[in-house]
Design a protein that fits this description.
The protein is an all-alpha fold. It has a domain of 67 residues. Helices cover 56% and strands 0% of the residues. It has 6 helices and no strands. The termini are far apart. The mean pLDDT is 79.
Length: 164
């Protein structure tokens, strides 16, 4: 006898497919996210006095604060979205050479054109620090990434030099 199909299977599959690599993607975690209490309304922190004028002013102040905070977050999101200093490109002589590099570096499963930097770092064994909670040591990251790329290049060179 087979168990009935999970009614949430489709939505769980969609959430897992869009979840960040290395992030928590168990069914239990995803179901907890789906069943979490909704965020409180924008006026949840207003303390009402019963006086219409006072309560209206408190609501307007709270809404204005919310709009200012949202504007600040949107400004930061826009800065991050348009900042070109968080990515780099590698260029090869051919598609075959690019694919060989991605396979040698064990990155092909992440993608063949645009790769998630954190996923690539995880695959290469590079520890990335959360910029919101820790100060990043880019010297270490650059050194490790440079050694990994040099190693992949050496493997590609050996393959190219060896007779087939």
């Amino acid at each position: 006898m087979t168990s009935p199909a999970d009614p949430n299977a489709d939505i769980l599959a969609q959430l897992q497919a869009t979840a960040a690599i290395g992030g928590p993607t168990s069914n239990a975690y995803l179901l907890a996210q789906l069943n979490a209490e909704p965020e409180p309304g924008p006026l949840a922190d207003v303390e009402y006095t019963g006086d219409l004028a006072t309560d209206s002013a408190a609501e307007l102040d709270t809404l204005a604060l919310g709009f200012r905070e949202r504007t600040r977050r949107e400004d930061e999101r826009f800065r991050l979205a348009t900042d070109s200093e968080y990515w780099f490109a590698l260029c090869f002589a051919s598609r075959a050479e690019k694919d060989a590099f991605l396979h040698a570096a064990r990155l092909f499963h992440i993608g063949d054109k645009y790769l998630d930097g954190r996923a690539a770092a995880a695959a290469l064994g590079v520890t990335m620090h959360d910029p919101d909670t820790e100060e990043e040591d880019w010297t270490i990251v650059r050194g490790r990434l440079g050694r990994l790329i040099a190693g992949a290049h050496a493997r590609l060179s050996r393959r190219a030099a060896s007779p087939s």
